[in-house]
């Protein structure tokens, strides 16, 4: 059962008094951890209690220090440590670090941390898999290309299920996603760090994460003793969900998982609002369907007005999925899909959906009519029709030739804000915010160094790193004065 839970206000008061008592002997160490002290001071774990309470029995021995344990995981990632075993040793050697986490007296052991990690993951502990060594199996993609989905037509099937409101998949990580929401995303939104929640633009993408497990596994057969070293017998694999994927940026194969993130594109702190780990071979367009359905369920209080995605998501069914939520799609065109538009009307249009007049010139966009849900296009020489070589054959109107296009003719090419326009490019430029999210999580907080061997451990690491990222932005905005209140005059940029 869940034991005593110290509230955030009580923790703040206790931390101040504890640091004041430690200042005479440990001032230098407190100053060194100055940025960490400010971070945990603004981290409100009160919403965490309601989320994790159903994970504990109503009877039995009380589980104490649960908010302190979670806070310690945040501290661990801040200190660029990924192994709880090593962090426990560091924690026991530092009174200041133990106080920052909120521990009084003896600090918890390694098993206590792993128990918390397992308790909040809604699936059994991953077991070693016994199987034939996996192979890449598919042809190496061309330069800049990504692997195609394994099953043709799978995106259409998934989108059809999503639009019917059917549950696509259960997720063992849903408790951690709720924690990220309540303890990081919602506080950042209230501070205005995400943008307008009623008109939010999001950016989504995937990034490869190499597992610490071997792709060759451990041999269980006796073939090596017989001089056979390249057999296809079953082997033991410590990361059962990892497989081969294609890293299109580095143009090489990798063995592991894909971290998919949806980031607020309006956030200039590149703050993630949703994370998901999938197999390395899964295509980003497939992952997005799952992610989008889960995102809408997770954040009913947000209105997602724009979705900024790369060319891997350039699939008609994804446009259909976004349009059902009245979300404008800003998706880069996939070169492989050139010439495969579904529009076959009387107008001649270019790849960006701009009508071409009889003089073979692109017409000028004259805005989007919300009432009639159509885009107005005007003659490129409307100011001086005498400059047009086809003027005698064109419209006799003084206003010039006008045509209209409707997005529902072809959601991919007739976008409300025309492709290639300055407005479209300005909005799409914010897509790179998700790339910076990956840099913060994987590089700055060094979770790639963890070399984990399970989806559970990877997701825990990424979630705590994302929470730290939100706290960094909140501290920069709020500028808490706890250090000056406990008698520390200078703030070190270390730690």
From TrEMBL:
It holds the Pfam family DDE_Tnp_1. Residues 242-457 form the Transposase IS4-like domain. Residues 131-151 are annotated as: Disordered. This is Transposase IS4-like domain-containing protein. The lineage of its organism: Bacteria, Bacillati, Bacillota, Clostridia, Eubacteriales.
């Amino acid at each position: 059962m869940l034991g005593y839970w110290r509230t955030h206000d009580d923790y703040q008061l206790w931390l101040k008094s504890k640091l004041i008592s430690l200042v005479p002997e440990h001032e230098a160490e407190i100053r060194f951890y100055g940025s960490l002290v400010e971070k945990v001071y603004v981290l409100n774990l009160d919403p965490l209690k309601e989320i994790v309470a159903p994970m504990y029995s109503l009877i039995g021995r009380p589980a104490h220090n649960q908010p302190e344990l979670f806070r310690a995981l945040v501290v661990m990632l801040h200190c660029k440590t990924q192994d709880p075993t090593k962090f426990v040793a560091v924690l026991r050697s530092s009174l200041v670090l133990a106080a920052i986490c909120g521990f009084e007296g003896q600090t918890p052991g390694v098993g206590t941390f792993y128990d918390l990690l397992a308790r909040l993951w809604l699936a059994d502990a991953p077991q070693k898999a016994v199987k034939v060594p996996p192979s890449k199996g598919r042809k190496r993609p061309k330069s800049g290309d990504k692997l195609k989905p394994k099953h043709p037509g799978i995106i259409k099937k998934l989108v059809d299920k999503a639009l019917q409101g059917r549950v696509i998949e259960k997720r063992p990580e849903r408790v951690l996603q709720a924690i990220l929401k309540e303890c990081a995303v919602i506080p950042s939104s209230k501070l205005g760090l995400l943008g307008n929640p009623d008109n939010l633009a999001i950016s989504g993408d995937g990034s490869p994460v190499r597992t610490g497990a071997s792709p060759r596994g451990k041999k269980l057969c006796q073939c090596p003793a017989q001089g056979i070293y390249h057999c296809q017998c079953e082997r033991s694999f410590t990361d059962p969900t990892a497989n081969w994927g294609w890293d299109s940026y580095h143009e090489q194969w990798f063995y592991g998982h894909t971290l998919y993130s949806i980031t607020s594109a309006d956030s200039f702190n590149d703050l993630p609002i949703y994370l998901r780990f999938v197999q390395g071979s899964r295509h980003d367009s497939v992952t997005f369907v799952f992610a989008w359905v889960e995102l809408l369920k997770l954040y009913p209080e947000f209105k997602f007005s724009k979705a900024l995605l790369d060319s891997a998501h350039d699939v008609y069914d994804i446009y259909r999925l976004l349009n059902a939520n009245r979300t404008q799609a800003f998706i880069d065109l996939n070169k492989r899909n050139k010439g495969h538009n579904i529009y076959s009307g009387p107008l001649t249009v270019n790849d960006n959906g701009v009508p071409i007049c009889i003089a073979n010139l692109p017409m000028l966009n004259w805005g989007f009519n919300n009432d009639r849900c159509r885009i107005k296009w005007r003659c490129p020489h409307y100011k001086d029709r005498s400059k047009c070589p086809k003027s005698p054959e064109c419209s006799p109107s003084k206003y010039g030739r006008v045509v209209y296009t409707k997005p529902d003719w072809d959601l991919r090419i007739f976008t409300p804000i025309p492709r290639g326009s300055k407005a479209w490019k300005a909005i799409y430029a914010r897509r790179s915010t998700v790339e910076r999210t990956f840099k913060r999580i994987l590089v700055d907080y060094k979770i790639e160094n963890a070399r984990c061997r399970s989806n559970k451990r990877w997701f825990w690491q990424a979630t705590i790193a994302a929470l730290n990222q939100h706290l960094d932005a909140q501290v920069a905005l709020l500028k808490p004065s706890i250090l000056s209140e406990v008698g520390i005059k200078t703030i070190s940029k270390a730690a």
